[in-house]
Design a protein that fits this description.
The protein has five helices and no strands. It has about 120 residues and is mainly α.
């Protein structure tokens, strides 16, 4: 892990080509290892989300999605923003911010009554 103590500034012409190759190789190896770790974490998370979490067969992904929806209905605009981003319908433009469209949509969701409605 890089920190102030182990960083060595390099000035032009300071390293020999041999040393530069060695450092480049070490950097490439570390980069590959980090990429593999991220990939395996992503695969593990995906498989965990697809596992059944309840007796009636709901997956963790379904429960997390339901939690996002419930939070949005309660008025959490961050939850609603995540939902819109996931659906590809959120554009973070100045116009959206000025109009307060997210808060208006959350308020509209409060009026919707379904089986998962949560009273605030």
């Amino acid at each position: 892990m890089a920190n102030i103590e182990n960083l060595k500034p390099i000035q032009k012409g300071q390293l020999s080509s041999e040393e530069a190759k060695i450092r480049g190789s070490k950097g490439g190896i570390a980069s590959g290892q980090a990429r593999r770790e991220k990939s395996s974490m992503k695969k593990l998370l995906k498989s965990m989300l697809e596992e059944n979490a309840t007796k009636d067969g709901k997956t963790y992904m379904e429960l997390a999605t339901l939690g996002l929806i419930k939070g949005a209905v309660k008025g959490d605009s961050k939850n609603y923003k995540v939902i819109l981003e996931t659906l590809g319908e959120y554009n973070n433009t100045e116009e959206d911010k000025k109009d307060g469209i997210i808060l208006e949509l959350v308020e509209a969701l409060r009026d919707v009554k379904t089986k998962w409605y949560v009273k605030s």
